[in-house]
Design goal:
This protein is mainly β and 89 residues long. The chain has a domain at 25-79: OB fold (Dihydrolipoamide Acetyltransferase, E2P), CATH 2.40.50. It has 2 helices and 4 strands; from the N terminus they run αβββαβ. The chain has helices spanning 16-19, 61-67; strands spanning 27-38, 42-49, 54-60, 74-79. A 4-stranded antiparallel β-sheet has the order 3-2-1-4. Strand 2 (42-49) and strand 3 (54-60) form a beta hairpin.
Length: 89
């Protein structure tokens, strides 16, 4: 059986397909990693945008390790949402 990791294109290979990939998400927010909290399975990553707004995301520990995340490194929060809920009081 083929290893699932063999199916992924690694960006460190400088593959043109990765460097020019377009995605369907339209909300790509660029910022800097402000904080990383590692758990047993999940990692909480806080990205600070240029206006000081912070976006927090939970990703798997293996994804965080694969991306080489580090505080101070530039990263993008990519938001793809099929449902957006709005509430009022």
């Amino acid at each position: 059986m083929r290893n699932l990791q063999d199916s992924f294109i690694r960006s460190e290979n400088n593959c043109p397909a990765v460097n020019t990939m377009e995605i369907s998400a339209r909300n790509v927010l660029k910022g800097t990693i402000k904080d990383i909290k590692y758990g047993q399975i999940l990692v909480e990553v806080v990205i600070e945008l240029s206006d000081g707004v912070q976006i927090t995301s939970l990703i798997t520990k293996s994804s965080a390790e694969h991306l080489g995340l580090a505080v101070g490194k530039e990263a993008s929060a990519i938001i793809k949402s099929s449902n957006v809920m709005i509430g009022i009081e």
